[in-house]
Amino acid sequence: MSVRNTTSSSDFTLLGLLVNSEAMGIVFTVIFAIFVVAIIANLVMIFLIQVDPQLHTPMYFLLSQLSIMDTLFICTTVPKLLMDMVSTEKTISFVACGIQIFLYLTMIGSEFFLLGLMAYDCYVAVCNPLRYPVLMNRKVCLLLAAGAWFGGSLDGFLLTPITMNVPYCGSRSINHFFCEIPAVLKLACSDTSLYETLMYICCVLMLLIPISIISTSYSLILLTVHRMRSTEGRKKAFTTCSSHLTVVSIFYGAAFYTYVLPQSFHTPEQDKVVSAFYTIVTPMLNPLIYSLRNKDVMGASRRIFTRCSSAQKVGTDRS
């Protein structure tokens, strides 16, 4: 029996973030550092929200879901990218490519919906503060989070099977650092224009639904803030929503370029840069934006640190 040294004919080859780059070592170090910071920052955020009673509120429950999504999101693409940067064999199996597409679509779709629901949470907190505990009770929060996860997974279940059932022939080299649908479809040996149109409509709808919620929520918030006479009240409303608006602007800006802007405005190099931004950088920025600009999170960090220091001191005194 002969040993096969060649890759399977169904495997794809990922050309990577940079091709024939002399700066590969520096880029690897930067991406690895971002990956580590993103994982740690999101896990710390989840931990703080779980253990600190003052963060057991609807806003922070939704924020913990965002941190879970960001952790899974960055783990979908970056580990494979880092391995490919230090390996001569940059192949990905057909099944692994399908799994990556599904997880990527699920995470990005879930974040689309969750950011829209977080805008609704801001609206209720600012415009209906007295009814906030009723309108955003635990049952409602669980339903909202489940809805975001379901909406994202629905996108994955719809588009992944269609993409993987398209016939691919000839070149198996994907000009990208992960299996992103537009890059994969360029290898198809059949006409995919109908599918690309349907995918475009699906993505536009995926963006329009949460953007409509965000636009309506913030329009009502601005009207309410404009009517406020208290400077402290306006400051509190701004603090409540500013971090969310920053994250929304970053995430939706990149998504709009990738999925809404016509392909004639795209180049493979630009696509890689934008994809790297929202798959690698954004998962790191989200927890940092919410922690560094949020007194509650910083306060929780200090309380946990003080509690741990006190416990360690008591243990040392006893010994």
TrEMBL record:
<feature type="transmembrane region" description="Helical">
    <location>
        <begin position="273"/>
        <end position="292"/>
    </location>
</feature>
<keyword id="KW-0552">Olfaction</keyword>
<dbReference type="InterPro" id="IPR000276">
    <property type="entry name" value="GPCR_Rhodpsn"/>
</dbReference>
<dbReference type="Pfam" id="PF13853">
    <property type="entry name" value="7tm_4"/>
</dbReference>
<dbReference type="GO" id="GO:0005886">
    <property type="term" value="C:plasma membrane"/>
</dbReference>
<dbReference type="InterPro" id="IPR000725">
    <property type="entry name" value="Olfact_rcpt"/>
</dbReference>
<feature type="transmembrane region" description="Helical">
    <location>
        <begin position="198"/>
        <end position="225"/>
    </location>
</feature>
<feature type="transmembrane region" description="Helical">
    <location>
        <begin position="140"/>
        <end position="162"/>
    </location>
</feature>
<keyword id="KW-0812">Transmembrane</keyword>
<dbReference type="GO" id="GO:0004984">
    <property type="term" value="F:olfactory receptor activity"/>
</dbReference>
<comment type="similarity">
    <text>Belongs to the G-protein coupled receptor 1 family.</text>
</comment>
<dbReference type="GO" id="GO:0004930">
    <property type="term" value="F:G protein-coupled receptor activity"/>
</dbReference>
<feature type="transmembrane region" description="Helical">
    <location>
        <begin position="60"/>
        <end position="79"/>
    </location>
</feature>
<feature type="transmembrane region" description="Helical">
    <location>
        <begin position="23"/>
        <end position="48"/>
    </location>
</feature>
<feature type="domain" description="G-protein coupled receptors family 1 profile">
    <location>
        <begin position="41"/>
        <end position="290"/>
    </location>
</feature>
<dbReference type="InterPro" id="IPR017452">
    <property type="entry name" value="GPCR_Rhodpsn_7TM"/>
</dbReference>
<feature type="transmembrane region" description="Helical">
    <location>
        <begin position="91"/>
        <end position="120"/>
    </location>
</feature>
<feature type="transmembrane region" description="Helical">
    <location>
        <begin position="237"/>
        <end position="261"/>
    </location>
</feature>
<keyword id="KW-0297">G-protein coupled receptor</keyword>
<keyword id="KW-0716">Sensory transduction</keyword>
<keyword id="KW-0675">Receptor</keyword>
<keyword id="KW-0472">Membrane</keyword>
<keyword id="KW-0807">Transducer</keyword>
<keyword id="KW-1003">Cell membrane</keyword>
<protein>
    <submittedName>
        <fullName>Olfactory receptor 2T11</fullName>
    </submittedName>
</protein>
<keyword id="KW-1133">Transmembrane helix</keyword>
